[in-house]
Design goal:
This protein is α+β, with helices and mostly antiparallel strands. The chain has one domain: Metal Binding Protein, Guanine Nucleotide Exchange Factor, Chain A, CATH 2.170.150. Helices cover 11% and strands 29% of the residues. The strands form two sheets. The chain has a six-stranded antiparallel β-sheet. Strands 2-1-9 form a three-stranded antiparallel β-sheet, with no helix packed on it. The chain is globular and about 40 Å long. It starts with 10 loop residues before the first helix and ends in an 8-residue tail after the last strand. 34% of the residues are buried.
Length: 140
C-alpha cells in the first residue's frame, strides 16, 4: 500500500549532495538516456539503495538483463519500500515507481518482466546507489 514519504530534504541540501543528473531524475521525474547509466549492465552482487535517502530498494538477485538499457528488477526488496503511481506525462500512461521513504522518482514498472512476478521495474541508475555485498564472490 502506498503511503506518504516520511523523510524530507531541502532542495538546497539535495543540490549540494546530488549530481545535477541525480537531482533531475529523482526530484524532477527525469529519465536518463538508455545504456548511459552506471548500473544498466552491472552484475556486482549487492543491494541497490535510494540515492536520496539510502533506503534499501532492490537486491542484485532480482536484477535481470531486460535489453532496455536501464537496470531492471523483477521485484523490490520488500513490500512497502516503493510506491506505485499513475504517470500521464509525455502523452503516455505509465506506472511510476517512487521511493516510499522519501518520494524520490526511481523509474517505471511494466508488466513484461520474468517470473516469478512478471514485472519489470525499470529504474534509473541516477536514482540508485549500489551497496556491494562484501561477502559475495566477485562477479567475473
Amino acid at each position: 500500500m502506498d503511503h506518504e514519504p516520511s523523510k524530507t530534504f531541502t532542495e538546497a541540501g539535495l543540490r549540494d549532495r546530488l549530481t545535477p543528473e541525480q537531482f533531475r531524475v529523482t526530484q524532477e521525474a527525469g529519465t536518463e538516456r538508455a545504456f548511459t547509466g552506471c548500473y544498466w549492465d552491472t552484475t556486482t552482487p549487492g543491494t541497490y539503495c535510494c540515492v536520496v535517502c539510502e533506503v534499501e530498494l532492490f537486491g542484485s538477485d532480482a536484477k535481470f538483463e531486460s535489453g532496455s538499457g536501464w537496470p531492471s528488477f523483477y521485484e523490490a526488496i520488500g513490500s512497502g519500500v516503493v510506491n506505485i503511481n499513475v504517470d500521464t506525462d509525455h502523452g503516455m500512461v505509465r506506472t511510476e515507481v517512487t521511493c516510499a521513504s522519501c518520494g524520490a522518482h526511481l523509474g517505471h514498472v511494466f508488466a513484461d518482466g520474468p517470473p516469478p512476478s512478471g514485472r519489470r521495474y525499470c529504474m534509473n541508475s541516477a536514482s540508485l546507489k549500489l551497496d556491494p555485498d562484501i561477502n559475495a564472490p566477485k562477479a567475473s
